[in-house]
Specification:
about 25% strand, 13 helices, binds flavin-adenine dinucleotide
Length: about 450
């Protein structure tokens, strides 16, 4: 009998893409070679999966096999003298933080949620609000154990199987199954951060604040009111933060305090309700200036306090559009993208703007490059939303930018290939037994 069982539809985080899989959830690393070698069902392509926080189809393999990695979540070794930590790839970031903060350490790069696995973080070479200082997570990975469908189990490091190492970092799970990962944690003195919020009037003011802050603030990010047009276009709140020099080393309770109990109905999302939210949020934040101390988990993972917040967008789901554009064209491109969203009346609650620094990403398919990254959530309104994102694609492509596969469920093959010029070199490392919805689409 096959270890793979047919599932109900598995949904991506954005909930637009979904479908049944043949899933297996190994308990032990040494089960993986046999699972990869299973011929049933019908030699379907395979993909390892983490906590399902990718928005589109890069973490889905509908009709194929899925290896759910979350039971492989054991810590293997930690050296407090060097900060080197080795664990199974299914360890969640929340569990990693609960382990390392009381010991005076912290992951060098974290995404905007702690409900991801280490394997998922490496497969998307994730960036954090400290990209200008730390680069991507892949820069801190010292070794990866990779199981391939030909039965080989390889230890990859920056010098051992170096090309496969850089294909696996940001490699969207397509080069094999990461079973163990070793990363270097950074020391911290406190679980608190010093934080400052600064309102700004427009896109130019955002770039001035980013330039001024990057030398002395390790974390920077801005919320943008993407509904306002005209003189208010691109106004927002700039948040900068750094680890406090002293204070308690308690990570704080993990887990959500609230839960979204139902899918909100579609009518809850119209330009009036989204405009009202943006206006109220702007006014509330703009009044509260000055620095404060806050738990790092609260600053770095604001959405984790509401479980299943993605249901807020209703049963139709949502798209997240995240692009990066290079420095020379950043200001014009960001203004053009915000103008497109505002003119289409497709404003978003969550619009985030951040500069990426010049630290090179180690992965062949890593998303971050120097410039500015803009992320916007759009409730799925079918053709209308897709047409808007196609118009935005043209702005990004003309600016020499690219889209983030972890957030994507619809970019064209041409958009992918123009944004990722290394794609051919990468494709040579893809394990022939592996695939995903994303990969089938962009390679079509
Ligand atoms: C609220 C929120 C905020 C976010 N903020 C950020 C952010 O600030 N920066 C950022 O970069 N990203 C961000 N993301 C995206 C998220 O970090 C990535 O999608 C991440 O890869 C999700 O990890 P996961 O464990 O859920 O993996 P999944 O979504 O389940 O899978 C993601 C990829 O990892 C691969 N994978 C997982 N485990 C393994 C393994 N063991 N071996 C091989 N491949 C594997 C899968 O095949 C897939 O390609 C955010 C997502 C959410 C929901």
């Amino acid at each position: 009998m096959s270890a793979f069982q047919k599932t109900e539809a598995i949904r991506s985080w954005g909930r637009v893409q979904n479908g049944p899989h043949w899933a297996a959830a190994p308990h032990w690393r040494d089960e993986i070679p046999a699972l990869l070698g299973e011929q049933a069902p019908a030699r379907a392509a395979v993909l390892a999966t983490g906590l399902g926080r990718s928005y589109g189809d890069s973490g889905l393999n509908v009709g194929g096999r899925a290896l759910a990695m979350t039971r492989l979540n054991r810590l293997i070794a930690f050296d407090p003298a060097t900060g080197l930590l080795r664990s199974e790839a299914g360890l969640s970031l929340a569990d990693l933080i609960a382990f390392c903060v009381p010991r005076g350490f912290y992951p060098p790069v974290v995404p905007g949620t702690s409900y991801v696995t280490l394997g998922g973080m490496v497969a998307n070479d994730v960036h954090g609000k400290n990209h200008h200082a730390a680069g991507t997570i892949g820069r801190w990975v010292t070794a990866i154990d990779l199981a391939r469908s030909d039965g080989s189990q390889l230890r990859l490091t920056p010098t051992q199987h170096a090309d496969l190492f850089s294909a696996t970092i940001g490699g969207l799970g397509l080069t094999g199954v990461m079973t163990e990962i070793e990363i270097r944690l950074r020391p911290i003195q406190s679980a608190n951060m010093e934080v400052e919020d600064i309102p700004f009037a427009n896109v130019e003011a955002f770039f001035d604040l980013a330039r001024e802050s990057e030398g002395s603030w390790e974390y920077t990010v801005a919320w943008i009111d993407c509904v306002s047009a005209g003189r208010k276009l691109g106004r927002g709140i700039f948040t900068r933060a750094r680890h406090a020099a002293d204070g308690p080393l308690e990570a704080g309770p993990a887990g959500a305090r609230l839960s979204m109990p139902i899918d909100l109905p579609r009518w809850a999302f119209n330009s009036a309700s989204i405009g009202l939210f943006n206006e109220v949020y702007w006014r509330r934040k703009a009044q509260r200036r000055g620095t404060r101390r806050q738990k790092l988990t609260k600053i770095l993972f604001p959405l984790d306090s509401i479980s299943r917040w993605n249901r807020m967008y209703g049963s139709g789901g949502m798209y997240q559009y995240q692009c990066v554009v290079p420095p020379d064209s950043a200001s014009d491109a960001v203004r053009a993208l915000l103008a497109q969203a505002s003119a289409a009346g497709e404003g978003s609650f969550l619009a985030v703007l951040k500069t990426f620094g010049g630290v090179a990403s180690p992965g062949l398919l890593s998303f971050p490059m120097e410039g500015a990254t803009l992320a916007l959530d759009f409730p799925n309104r079918g053709e209308r939303t897709l047409a808007l994102m196609e118009r935005m694609d043209r702005v990004v492509a003309e600016a020499g930018g690219r889209l983030y596969p972890a957030k994507d469920g619809r970019m064209s093959s041409a958009m992918f290939k123009s944004g990722y010029p290394n794609w051919r070199r990468f494709a040579a490392h893809v394990d022939p037994a592996f695939s995903s919805g994303f990969w089938r689409r962009v390679m079509a």
